[in-house]
Amino acid sequence: MTKIRDRKMVETFYLLYDKKRIRLEDVLLRMSHDLFFLDQNYIYKRIFYISENLSYYEQLKEGKITLPEIQRSIAGWLGYVKHADSYNLRKSMFYIEG
User: Fold this and answer.
1) Prediction pTM value
2) What stretch of H or E contains 69?
3) Measuring CA to CA, which residue among 78, 80, 71 is closest to residue 93?
4) For residue 98, what pLDDT is reported?
């Protein structure tokens, strides 16, 4: 479960910081309060101090992992979360209905 959460954390960070170009502090604040409910420093350390997560982030940045692969991964995670009956979590993360 931790590995899945870490990948989603890295993907979310990549989408907010690298694609949407939101400031680092704002990305960490949003992720900590709205998405993962974890401390900002903990999120930063999970992404950049664990070699597996850092290499995954670098693959995203270099384009080795494409947007459709990320979308499939997020869709799979949304299916998992939907099964857990967490409508408000999905709504706060992706602003979606259903």
Assistant:
1) 0.64
2) helix 67-83
3) 78
4) 46
